[in-house]
Amino acid sequence: MNDKPLIHVIDDDAAMRDSLAFLLDVNGYKSQVYETADAFLAGGGAELLSCVISDIRMPGISGIELVRKLKREGAASAVILITGHGDVALAVEAMKAGAADFIEKPFDDAALLDAVRAALDTHPSALGENSRRKQAGARLADLSPRERDVLQGLVAGKINKVIAHELSISPRTVEVYRANLMAKTGARSMSELMRLALAAGL
């Protein structure tokens, strides 16, 4: 019996599918590829406890719609969304929908593998809602009031310039606060920071 973790890869770009499948294979994972989210759902992959890597924009069901559908149906799959058109608002929408992570193309192989490991380790079924909220709250406990203000702006999908205007500070200062947020919470990516803030109820 093969006990390698199974990763489902959904992307309408054949070259990207092949590239991801190869990367996962050489790093000890099994992969199953699909051209669309509809094909993934039709294949029954959502019924298994697994990790899904999906493009956001593709024919049929989008990556974010897939996340929402799996969440509604109580599926046990953690979904990492990838996109070539990343922006803060899209990342926030993805995280609020329940995505495990959000990664922009072109991405570093190590960053994607880290996201896969984190998605498998912190699978939603592994922790209760209260435990997740407490853990997230603890990681945000040392933030200053102004850092929390900046974080709330980011969670609302606002860009640095808008946050700066609303808080009467410079965009450069917002960048400094963002760096502080990453350092204090230990978040390795903006999507991880968004996930923490949402889990903590910000």
Can you summarize this structure?
With 202 residues, this protein is an alpha/beta fold. The chain contains 10 helices and 5 strands.
What features would you describe in this structure?
- The chain is elongated, with a radius of gyration of 17 Å.
- It folds into two domains: 121 residues, Rossmann fold (3-Layer(aba) Sandwich), CATH 3.40.50; 71 residues, Winged helix-like DNA-binding domain superfamily/Winged helix DNA-binding domain (Arc Repressor Mutant, subunit A, Orthogonal Bundle), CATH 1.10.10.10.
- It starts with 5 loop residues before the first strand and ends with a helix.
- The protein contains ten helices and five strands.
- α8 packs across α9.
- About 2% of the residues have low confidence.
- 53% of the residues lie in helices and 13% in strands.
- The chain is an alpha/beta fold and 202 residues long.
Number of strand segments: 5
H/E element sequence = EHEHEHEHEHHHHHH
Radius of gyration equals 17 Å
Main CATH class of the largest domain? Alpha Beta
Characteristic terms for this protein:
alpha/beta; five-stranded parallel sheet; 202 residues; Rossmann fold; 10 helices
Which SSEs are present, and which pair or pack?
Layout: E1 6-10, H1 14-26, E2 30-34, H2 37-42, E3 50-55, H3 63-72, E4 77-83, H4 88-97, E5 101-104, H5 109-121, H6 129-140, H7 145-155, H8 160-167, H9 171-185, H10 190-199
Parallel strand pairs: 1-2, 1-3, 3-4, 4-5
Helix pairs in contact: 4-10, 7-8, 7-9, 8-9
